[in-house]
Amino acid sequence: MTRRATLRGVGHYLPARVVENSEIETMVDTTDEWIKTRSGIERRHFAAEGELTSDLAVHAATAALKDAGLDASDIDALIVATSTPDQTFPSVATVVQGKLGTAGFAFDVQAVCAGFVYAMSTANAFITSGQAQRVLVIGAETFSRIMNWDDRTTCVLFGDGAGAVVLEGTDGAGTSADAGILSTDLNSDGNFGDLLYVNGGVSSTQTTGVLVMQGKEVFRHAVEKLAKTAETALEKADLTPDDVDWIVPHQANSRIITRTAQKMGVAMDRVVMTVQDHGNTSAASIPLALSVAKSEGKFTQGQLLVMEAIGGGLAWGAVVLRL
Ligand code: UT7
Fold this sequence. Notes:
Elements: E1 2-13, E2 17-20, H1 21-25, H2 32-39, E3 43-46, H3 53-68, E4 77-81, H4 92-100, E5 105-109, H5 115-128, E6 134-142, H6 152-155, E7 160-172, E8 180-188, E9 196-198, E10 211-213, H7 215-236, E11 246-249, H8 254-264, H9 275-278, H10 285-295, E12 304-311, E13 315-322
Helix pairs in contact: 3-4, 7-8
The site of oxa(dethia)-CoA has 19 residues, from helix 2, helix 6, helix 7 and strand 12.
């Protein structure tokens, strides 16, 4: 028997305010046409003043618990993937724990846009090693708070939101037919830190800073690295792209999503695409896409999902999960 982390519930939350490209046109020197053609983004959500990352996370987690048919007290570990915490500390995870009343321990994972993949891999390790039985994994971000509104190359791309999943330990046969996380693949290369970063911080400037990105370079790395990490994760589970029912990719750019699917030989009708409605919500983007796709009835039990993401660090990786 092999311990597996199976997906028991999914949920998401988007702030009420929808910002269409036409509104962005009034804020910076850009056009709906440019944003749509270059990134696929049509609209994004922005958190209201005073609405915090932890608030978004609590809403998404509540929806995931409901979907799982569980109470907060059933959770024994809580992990939040975020790069936009309410405060420097405590962690968003402990804030959420305080608001929801989950049992056990809680902590944040920071791997920027790859954060959810890193958090899922961490949760998987806790479950398969017997250190936790039910883990709430949340991706939550308020990237609108770290935009430079004088930089049209970045500020048109990002949005706010949260998604959450409940993972539960179950016994599998140890084959690729098992339900649950079958493999993960994590990578990072600190030599590329200057391609995507925030130009402030506690230890350096004592300010929050704003996002800075060399978009073209990040694009190049994304196209090169995402298909590779997805295929490596599949290989670890003795699977190939032909076995994949759904790619649930990080939602940064529809062109990156399409090229990655093409490289893997996976048809676009097997790729979840939500970037048009959410923009890039960093660590929240995969669980948001997962939850939206589930609520649209896209998934059936037993299907094979691959999640893949890349972001600042650079950090990238993939998770293979059977429903
Ligand atoms: O989530 C973390 C990972 N992040 C990503 O994956 C993002 C990766 N990068 C990208 O998605 C793309 O590189 C962008 C969407 C950021 C940019 O697309 P691009 O095709 O690489 O455009 P570009 O940067 O080469 O810019 C093309 C032109 C430039 O004008 P010139 O030099 O050709 O005259 C820019 O000045 O578009 C201009 N431009 C804009 N025009 C209108 C740049 N931003 C804008 C804008 N509106 N907002």
